Amino acid sequence: xxxxxxxxxxxxxxxxxxxxxxxxxxxxxxxxxxxxxxxxxxxxxxxxxxxxxxxxxxxxxxxxxxxxxxxxxxxxxxxxxxxxxxxxxxxxxxxxxxxxxxxxxxxxxxxxxxxxxxxxxxxxxxxxxxxxxxxx
Length: 136
Hints:
Oligomer: single chain
Order of helices and strands: EEHHEEEE
């Protein structure tokens, strides 16, 4: 028998609202780490994002995420969803066009907000993408 453990990443509120879902945007530690690492490797001046506080970096990430509200590629139910109790948490994949940094955002749509869990420079599209606006 295998025990499974789910870790919830620390989410920080940004004070911004997602234009697509009208839910508050929160940013995970993983997304901040990826942003800092990417810009540290790309630029010789480490002070671009490395020295920013979490609050300022969260706002930058939330703004980048909000720009992608019209370009959702795929959605699927997360493992933590419970169909019987109608507690559904959707994972949403969005693309930001015309950027050299991260092109894709992975987020979880919860009843009380949308959490940006990670970013990526690539994404393998499924044969049959699913996209819709969840009702809360």
